[in-house]
Amino acid sequence: MQRIIFGCGTLLVLLAGMELAAPRIASAQDISSSNYQVLAPVITSGGGYATSSSFSVLGVISEFSHNLSDSDSFDLVPGFAAYPFVSTPVVTATGVTTAVNLSWTAAVGVLGYSTASYSIGQSTASGGPYTFTAVGNVLSSTVSSLTAGTPYYFIIRAHDSYSTTIATSTEATATPTAAATTPPSSSGGGGGSSAIPVSDTGTGASFSGSAYPNSTVTVLKDAQVAATSISGSDASFQMTLSNLAAGNFIFSLYSEDNNGNRSSLVSFPLSLTQGAITNVTGIFIAPTILADKSEVRRGDTITLFGQSVPKSDIIITVHSDQSYFGTTISDKGGVYLYNFDSSILDYGSHSAQSKAMIGNQLVSGLSPAVNFQVGTKNVAATKAATCGSIGDLNCDNRVNLVDFSIMAYWYQRTLSANGLKADLNHDNKVNLTDFSILASRWTG
Predict the structure, then answer these.
(1) How far apart are the C-alpha atoms of 340 and 324, rounded to whole Å?
(2) What fold does the segment set 290-380 form as a domain?
(3) How far is CA 197 from the centre of its chain?
(4) What is the reported pTM?
(5) Of 30, 223, 275, 394, which is least packed with CB atoms within 10 Å of its CB?
(6) What is the pLDDT of residues 206-222, one digit of tens each?
(7) Which residues lie below 8 Å from residue 272, measured CB to CB, with a gap of 6+?
């Protein structure tokens, strides 16, 4: 199913409700274009008030039109597909001594939204109710004076300059720890005392969120493969890295869709606390996107497709002199497909990206861009057999330390499906020969 209104036009106002009380009605005709059709529009003749028992409309409602609006100072992009978005904050929660350290990614707005401040919702029960505290326009905060051993649940709300909530994170949880205790000194001579923690749950990091159904999710720690996991049929995943050293690290995650295409990388700088598990929740990996043509004849359609969370709203953005938007819904396997009419594009180079949204609340980041040409002929897209180059193990069209780290992970290990990509000389093992081949393809 597709929903789209493209291009420029006057503001479209659709009214549905009960019968108008004594309205003045002007005649109207069906309106259609290559992108949509409006049947039996009802408009007022201009001026005055339109009222009913359920609503009132003040002002003038003009007839629907298409491609009739122009200005040197602004672009008008009407329609249901061109509406503002705000990315969903991803929350990190770490339990420390009688407190929880919180940090979150920025809520980034497009098409008019701008984040001015954040507030923290706190509860001792999963799902709330929450008590909210304003913390200003910051990306981290510490909630103190908490009870050790009690789980606490947190959400982050983003607000605009009018204090209106424009985005809400998923819930994160953490349990504060107790202060270290000092045993009493012996009455006998000699010996000393040392601080002994009440409990040590180990130092680590936990990651949870959504990717693609039954897909491989990979976690990198400082550009080295730290763990992999398989998401469920609902695309959800969860994995925990334990027995880590305390300190500052950069963790990154990516996933692969059912065609082996890799998502864009999502990264989180974390400061791990000794004896605590840092929880990162609400991770929403961006969709993948491909095009069926590398060049499309102007006026023909180009098909954009990829994979995301099942039954999610997929927003397609086509970048040109101005941006065009379209929406579709992924199927139960997370696969989506969208046919874009190239007649509204000029000849030349263009690109497209996608993002996913769940329930008008969770919004992913943007996918990698797929490039295409609008020209005089149709040319089918071809998939590079080696993701751009031999040795490009993470398919970013570069051979660098990330690929070296992936290969190092599989060094002298039993190879699985993903590990076979690191076996560059196809001898069913990763050894120094593979590293030599990788070095010969190095791009930096």
Answers:
(1) 10
(2) Immunoglobulin-like (2.60.40)
(3) 39
(4) 0.58
(5) 30
(6) 999 999 999 999 998 88
(7) 94, 203, 204, 205, 244, 245, 246, 247, 248, 249, 278
